[in-house]
Write a structure and sequence with these properties.
By secondary structure, the protein is α/β, with parallel strands linked by helices. Helices cover 43% and strands 23% of the residues. α2 runs antiparallel to α5, α3 runs parallel beside α4 and α6 runs parallel beside α7. Bound molecules: S-adenosylmethionine. The site of S-adenosylmethionine has 19 residues, from α4 and β2.
Amino acid sequence: MITDKIPADLQNTWTTVDDYINQKLIPSDPVLDAALTASADAGLPQIAVTPCQGKLLHLLARSIGAKNILEIGTLGAYSTIWLARALPAEGRLVTLEADPKHAEVARANIANAGLEDKIELREGPALETLPELAAEGLLPFDFIFIDADKENNIGYFQWALRLSHPGALILIDNVIRDGAVADPNSTDPMVQGVRRLNDLLAKESRVCATTIQTVGSKGYDGFTLALVVS
Ligand SMILES: C[S@@+](CC[C@H](N)C(=O)[O-])C[C@H]1O[C@@H](n2cnc3c(N)ncnc32)[C@H](O)[C@@H]1O
């Protein structure tokens, strides 16, 4: 069934369980908390990954020993900080953000986290900054997190393939969209962006991919994980 809206009691349960998991496994972190507070105070949309999701990104990047990480969609750098903390001493992370105000807040949050030496934030539409990375030879990346405008998912994924190597992981966020992804008649450009990417994934032999539906404090959504195999 494709949900029009989530019943309040169900959403409350998901939020309560997320709170419980955070309390047990993800202790309050002054730097990450400050990044969220500064982002909210600056009026940025509160659409960062949740703590559980941020930690999942961190664990995935750490588990493959990622040394070079690419993020498309920085917002206030909340997920960026989670990911950068997975890097070894010599590791680096490039994050791409189109909105100058988001970039400004993110830079301050990155500085507050003491991660300026590891993180490079490139400002501008990602479909313009991605070719720059290729032209400058800033590749390959071991872990790529796609979390920007969903309409351009297919373009980002194609760039991710060009900028990665066999063994790299590509994670694409917000691919369920309250279940609307299963609706072939959806006119939502973001849903259409996800569906176009799924059509491509279905026939792309260079990756092995799956999608996981998720619930939590941010509602009902999900992510696609793709391993570059050749
Ligand atoms: C969902 S938010 C990213 C959240 C962030 N990854 C986190 O979890 O903390 C999406 C971000 O992508 C940015 N964005 C939208 N279109 C973009 C584009 N064409 N190029 C680069 N960034 C874009 C938005 O300005 C926004 O800051």
